[in-house]
Design goal:
The protein is of the alpha/beta class. It contains 23 helices and 20 strands.
């Protein structure tokens, strides 16, 4: 880097060249709190020498225009990281975008690629560094090593190209696009990345097992989008430039403003005054609630990020403010529509922020939400989690009012009996809301709380009326990504050729994956079946495993269920979990257990014509059994 700077600025003193090289190569790696310390170290080493920040006005302006064209909210920290990525790509053949989920890793390279392309194709920039960019994305852990780099077919003994070798061979052709970025969006470990060492050094050559050497062009770049580098080897890390992003680079307000632009304002769902009132609600409540919930994070069944919670709130609001037949009428008085919006926001915030907490956490959160939303005047009976918004009555009502009657069938197997409870009805309602607005959900809870039964019962009641085509599967420790891909694709039919698949009969495809955290964790922490699903959710496609063309699934939704990690169940990647509404079903209380089993026992005794005195003893027998168990 220092050599390039000296050649480009021959009149610059060596001290200034060295400072700029140190700054440009190290700043992208640092956290915000480390920047003042680094600047102080530079001043100590080179006292009295100051280096002005180099401004790339053309690219900075184009990044802002790209933001606006995509209806995104401008964030200065994201623009800064995109500029750092551009500078790093100028001096490094391989670059790693590192950081926790929600930091904007995908966003910055997509924004930069589009901005550089527009500067060349539309603005006709004179700066030759700006060229048309084509990004090719793959997840290296969604497939096997043989499928990634190529292998010898065991039946024909012929060499079969892998996905990475096929893509890189195209990048080596002289007629390929001017700039090509190969994006490896997946965990970096010490196995597959070692084969990239000769690519990342000055050779820029991929060496395959069959002896072939693929020499890449200087206009090709390798990008690695990863969460961390805990298991990456020093040999690989030293060959790559680093750009580190944190969730602090992308706070919740830009996400909310982007949602307002693309959903509320674009579709005209609210008037200007209603939009201002909704924005006021977010400003007044979100920061206060996030600060209070930060102290209760240890009570979450599964960790959820702040930005993920904000997205969940927005999703629930989409249910209450639909595009057609909205709950808010245009001629309503402010007193009426403000009351409705306040109630919509309260319900969305309660479940968007706290659906991942256990029973003990809900008890603490109950007092917090009652204090925040005191205008609702909720009854003190039970917690806020037992109340739903009744659109007809324009108020919150107890979910017990929506509980259906239990119908006992004499010939029905015991395992098929489902007794409605306050919790089951509430969580079924949440599932119905999320399916209606086409959002992904992840149900968790200890064994026996009824996760799978709740979801299957919803499918049984609504599959025909809502035209749902359900693909249901349960994973195990031995499930591979290839088996999971086969289970999904075998239930679909071709829509437009072999590259677009969908549910049969034009139905909506629901992929229900039970025990999703059961697949075995590899030596370096990855779960290939989970990475396959993440690639489908993130990029909208997966790769066919022999000819490696993209396969897209039309009109599908993903629903997952699993018990909490432990006892053979693994922690799933946060980069995968961020796409879901995480809903924790708490353990049934003694009152709930008494209601379930006494209802079944009483119905059984009545159905078999037992005398009334015996029927009256059913509740007593159940209570005695629960007391004995406890």
């Amino acid at each position: 880097m220092a050599g390039n700077l000296k050649r480009a600025n021959a009149g610059l003193s060596e001290n200034r060249v060295l400072i700029r090289a140190m700054r440009d190569s190290n700043l992208p790696k640092f956290l915000h709190r480390d920047l003042p310390l680094f600047e102080a170290l530079i001043q100590d080493l080179f006292p009295g020498v100051s280096i002005p920040q180099i401004q790339n006005y053309e690219l900075e302006a184009m990044l802002i225009d790209t933001y606006e064209s995509q209806s995104l909210t401008f964030v200065s920290s994201i623009q800064k990281k995109a500029l750092q990525l551009f500078d790093t790509l100028e001096v490094r053949f391989g670059v790693m975008l590192v950081g926790p989920t929600g930091g904007g890793k995908t966003t910055i390279y997509q924004l930069l690629a589009q901005s550089m392309t527009l500067l060349r194709s539309e603005r006709q920039s004179t700066d030759q560094r700006f060229q048309n960019v084509k990004a090719k994305v793959l997840n290296p852990k969604a497939i096997t090593m043989g499928e990634l780099y190529g292998q010898v077919d065991s039946e024909t003994s012929e060499w079969v190209d892998g996905l990475a070798s096929k893509l890189l061979r195209k990048c080596s052709l002289p007629d390929s696009p001017r700039l090509t970025w190969c994006v490896f969006d997946g965990p970096v470990d010490a196995i597959w990345i070692e084969n990239m060492n000769t690519v990342l050094d000055d050779n820029m050559t991929l060496c395959l097992v069959n002896g072939e050497r693929i020499k890449l062009r200087h206009t090709t770049r390798m990008l690695f989008e990863v969460q961390d580098l805990r298991v990456a080897s020093p040999a690989t890390v030293s060959r790559c430039g680093m750009v580190y992003l944190t969730p602090d680079d992308l706070p919740w307000r830009p996400l909310f403003q982007c949602w307002m632009k693309t959903t509320i304002k674009a579709d005209g769902l609210l008037s200007e005054k209603q939009q201002e009132y909704l924005e006021e609600l977010f400003e007044n409540f979100i920061d206060v609630a996030l600060e209070k919930l930060r102290k209760l994070k240890h009570m979450e069944a599964l960790a959820v990020t702040a930005n993920q919670s904000i997205k969940c709130i927005c999703n629930y609001l989409e249910f209450f403010i639909p595009k057609q037949g909205g709950s808010l009428q245009p001629n309503e008085k402010k007193q009426v529509w403000s009351r409705k919006l306040y109630s919509f926001f309260a319900f969305s915030m309660i479940w968007g922020l706290s659906s991942s907490y256990d029973r003990q956490g809900q008890l603490y959160l109950d007092s917090i939400f009652r204090e925040l939303f005191s205008k609702l005047h909720l009854p003190k009976q039970d917690t806020v989690f037992q109340y739903y918004y009744d659109a007809k009555a324009i108020k919150f009502s107890h979910i017990r009012n929506r509980m259906p009657r239990f119908e006992y069938l004499l010939d029905a197997p015991y395992s098929t009996l489902v007794v409605p409870t306050v919790d089951s009805v509430m969580y079924s309602r949440l599932l119905a809301m999320l399916i209606k607005i086409n959002k992904r959900s992840y149900f968790t809870g200890h064994t026996g709380v009824g996760k799978s039964i709740l979801i299957q019962e919803y499918f049984r009641k609504n599959q025909a009326s809502q035209r749902l085509s359900v693909i249901q599967m349960s994973l195990s420790a031995q499930t591979t990504s290839a088996e999971l891909q086969t289970m999904i694709l075998s239930k679909l039919e071709k829509k437009r050729g072999k590259k677009l698949l969908g549910a049969k009969g034009g139905n909506q495809c629901i992929i229900f994956v039970d025990d999703i955290n059961m697949p075995m964790v590899e030596e370096y922490g990855a779960q290939p079946p989970i990475e396959l699903l993440r690639q489908l959710v993130d990029n909208g496609h997966i790769y066919e495993r022999s000819k490696f063309f993209k396969i897209k699934i039309d009109n599908y939704r993903l629903i997952c269920a699993a018990a909490p990690p432990g006892g053979g169940r693994a922690h799933l990647s946060p980069r995968f979990m961020r796409h879901f509404h995480v809903i924790n079903i708490p353990n049934a209380s003694d009152e709930t257990l008494e209601s379930i089993f006494s209802t079944i026992l009483e119905a059984f005794l009545r159905g078999h014509k037992f005398n009334p005195h015996t029927i009256k003893c059913s509740r007593t027998a159940v209570n005695a059994t629960i007391d004995m168990y406890n």
